[in-house]
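Researcher: Re-running this chain for the archive, since the previous output was lost when a drive failed. Same request as before.
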Amino acid sequence: YEVRSRLRELFGVGDDAKIAQLVNSLVAEAPMSPRLSEHDGYGWHLHYFAPSASLAEHLAVDGGVAIAHVVTTGETDRLRVCEAPDCEAVLVDLSRNRSKRYCDARSCGNRLNVAAYRERKRAAASSDA
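Model: Regenerated structure tokens:
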């Protein structure tokens, strides 16, 4: 079960119909048995995976259902791939203005912002010379 690659495929697609097709394919292959459950002090909540599901199947079902909720709320534009050219991470943009570009502002974002700043400084220095 290639859960990570299958879930990653859903990010950056930009087409709700294609995302729905991928989600349907993902959850169709895993044993689903939606049921209410109350355990470990969590109160009543819904489990989607079958009790006999493997960890990979559990993650496929939970991930697929979570993405399905994103589709039904019209928020698929929040599913993104990090814009850093050397990063393949995905992210869900939960910012108010939907402007998140990097998986982590402290690593990918900072690295690219510092590189852009240094390039601007180099360009300014060479134009002054």
